[in-house]
Amino acid sequence: MRKQFTLSPVAIAAASLVSLVSVMAVNPALAAEKAKTKAAGKYVTGDFHNHSTCSDGSLSMKKLIDKSVKTYGLDWFVQADHGGSSARNCTLTEDPFEPAVPALGLTNSATGPYGTSNTYPVGGQPATDLKGPNQSWESTLPGGRAAIKGDGTATPKRMWRWQEIQEFQYKATEDESRARLKPIWIGLEQNAPGHEHVSTIVLQGQKPWPQTGVAGNATLQAQYEYCFDRSDTDTSRGAENQWDCSVAASPADSRINATARKITGNNSTATPDLGHAKTMEGIKWLLEKAPTTSLFVPAHLERAGAYNPTSSRGFNIEHLRNFNNLAPNIAFGFESAPGHQAADTRGEYSPNRGASLANPTAGIDSVGTGTYGGVGIYAARIGGVWDALLGEGRKWWFFASSDYHNRGAFGADQLESTQDFYPGEYQKDYVLVRKGSNNLTAEGIIDGLRSGNSWVAHGDLIDRLSFVACAANPALPQKAFKALIEKAASNAAINNAEVRMNGCATMGEKLVIAPGADVVVAIAVRDPQGKNYSPYSFPNPSLKQINITQPLNAPVLDHIDVIGGNVTGFVSPTDTAKYAGLEGSAAASNSTAAIKKVFSSANWTAGADGVRVMSYRIPAVKVSQYVRLRGTNLPASTPFETDANGNPLNDYDLLPYFDPAKTDPEQPGKVECSDAACPTHMRTVGGKKYSSYDVSAWADLWFYSNPVYIEVTNSVKILGAK
């Protein structure tokens, strides 16, 4: 068990303010009394984008859920296979099903549960054997081929995803949810027409725990897949469902195929932008059918390159604006922290992606060519796409996913990976769910995601965060107010909650102030003491370059950047110069965004059990603006990792994997993995091992928060936050 928190330096400062409690409450309970419009809540962890054998994953639903919510302790989970069709029955378990092995968590001994071994015993049926969840629907259903509905002539016959969701997968998630007493439900990684992939959820009809009694259904989620996934070419209208994909907002859409009752075209040279139009119709459908219980979040959106009106790939900034303009309570963010963090090219981002030695010109450059500290350039570049959207005052939030498919060269129960991390193992979405974690519901989780009161961390770099902007109280001396707000922030972090105090706003909210007022930004984080889930205890090779010896499984938060920019208002779609453009263009940039403050051990207060507390004052605020956070375990100017200002560098440059111009695709990395314990699966060139795959991911950790908005009453109104 972890020790109880004590924050002596802050507590002493706050104690000196007893005579001032009538001006502003110090006690968190009293603060809550003054903020009655906000119900209490807790931050919970989850993931909404991962795969089973019902698409291109390698595990049964049961095993993937077990790994996610038991082994790695997530509080909620969404099963979200690709749309289209699949021949394999993911509702069958591994043969035999291997239960969860002990986790390496933060409180385990230095050697871990299996001594010095880097691996768990391999259990379960190997994915190469056609057993367990790799068996076909046709060979395992009582009705065989006849039980598989809709179009299709392949042998074995592939089942359309809508049938998998409606008749098989939903029941599996509901059963798992109620058995494990956690919200677990079905979503979809949509192959979005005109684009690449989008994480979508239609919760309406589903009844995960804590609901009991009458069974729910995922009929609306299944219908959405049939109607709007570009890989679903079934024309049966969902067989006996006889679905009609038209929406009330487009009552006489001539593009709808009379037989399939859906738009069957896509982006092409003959029909440019048709796919994007179909995706927009899908958002209209969500707005009509499930306006408060659905979400639409583009995934790894830089990976497939810039948008092309004649093919299905990429998202430019105008498409994100289109989505958000149409349905701001459904399309409210992006997964710019992709999964596949242990892959040979981190996140599967690279230049000339898809090229091969046989066809060296076949690829497309990912936007930015690589990730930056595991984050796509849309969010990683200060002043880029995300800052442009925040600079409009939009409700547009940052999320992450694990996008789990497999462990690459390793078995499902081994700790090493050359491809993916399990949900909860490396990346987590932390989201505040109101009414307390004892009343955790899927609806509350979606509300929390929509609110923007959330943040993301790699590798348990931090596991608690309180972040507020507060209007300075002129009745208090500056030092007294600073201590007061820092105490409120640290109390919230201790309780895994938020500051609920009049005159303060947290992530996803806006603070409204008079012109010229001072604002105090307060931050409290917990840097967990002990190990994360990394199986490696040798020194971090990226830090070893600069003579810092730090175990790879015990990272230390180095610094936090406070990033801010001005809000200038929504851009009109008619203003084509400012509304539409590629990353780096004027339309996709915010020139006012910059690092406003850097905190480190030199200027934060270090409390017990890894709690770090800090604040700074923004004097005489005259224009509407926002502030957001990021932090890392790497100092500025870490070779090949960060620049002189602490910005993350291109991960592909660190790990160049494939150059079609060369006959030998095996290239060295930039950071040598020279420790004797460095594992054998590292990229090895000329007898030297280079930090790569999972080691390079564990070496380079970041967290990102969503923004707090500050609205000045005579300045720009911020429309995307309450």
Detailed description of the structure:
Helix 6 runs antiparallel to helix 7 and helix 7 packs parallel to helix 8. This protein is 20% helix and 17% strand. The two termini are 38 Å apart. With 722 residues, the protein is of the alpha+beta class. It is globular. Strands 1, 2, 5, 11, 12, 15, 17, 18, 21, 24 and 25 form an eleven-stranded mixed β-sheet that branches. It has a five-stranded antiparallel β-sheet with strand order 14-13-16-20-19, with helices on one face. The protein has a three-stranded antiparallel β-sheet with strand order 6-7-8. The chain has 16 helices and 25 strands. It has a domain of 300 residues. Helix 3 links the parallel strand 1 and strand 2.
Write a short abstract of this structure.
The protein is α+β, with helices and mostly antiparallel strands. The protein has a domain at 43-247 and 257-299 and 401-452. Strands 1, 2, 5, 11, 12, 15, 17, 18, 21, 24 and 25 form an 11-stranded mixed sheet that branches. It has a 5-stranded antiparallel sheet with strand order 14-13-16-20-19, covered by helices on one side.
